[in-house]
Design goal:
Strand order of the largest sheet: 4-5-6-3-2-1-7
Shape: globular
Distance between the termini: 31 Å
Number of strands: 7
Number of helices: 2
Number of domains: 1
CATH class: Mainly Beta
Structural class: alpha+beta
Protein name: DUF1508 domain-containing protein
CATH topology: PH-domain like
Order of helices and strands: EEEHEEEHE
CATH architecture: Roll
InterPro entries: YegP-like_sf (IPR036913)
Radius of gyration: 14 Å
């Protein structure tokens, strides 16, 4: 099962990633000024995963990636993959697990493991 992980960027905006069941990042969202906007985007995506469109690209250095569109609007961008097969596996992971994935919030930047 995958996981949505909410974090804070250095510019104090929020983002989330969708991580595979093995912990690898599959895609990273756009930035959100407020945390609840990101949370709403996650819930909207989970409810409408079947409406997502995946546009596949190849970068100038030959790596593969995709953009996630939800209702025709750019929603997120994937990490770079070495092969087209791995890219397809990333998309399949989203289709299969996104709607039932849990949401973790690490945006508070609190120290989880103290010395």
């Amino acid at each position: 099962m995958g996981t949505f992980v909410i974090t804070k960027r250095f510019n104090d905006e929020y983002k989330f990633v969708f991580a595979s069941r093995k912990g690898k990042t599959i895609f990273t969202s756009l930035s959100f000024e407020l945390k609840f906007e990101g949370e709403e985007a996650i819930e909207k995506f989970k409810a409408n995963t079947d409406l997502a469109t995946f546009l596949k690209f190849r970068s100038t250095n030959g790596r593969y990636y995709f953009k996630v569109l939800l209702e025709g609007v750019h929603f997120a961008t994937s990490r770079k993959y070495t092969t087209e097969l791995r890219l397809e596996k990333g998309i399949n992971e989203i289709v299969k697990y996104a709607s039932t994935s849990e949401v973790l919030d690490f945006s508070a930047n609190d120290v989880i493991f103290s010395d």
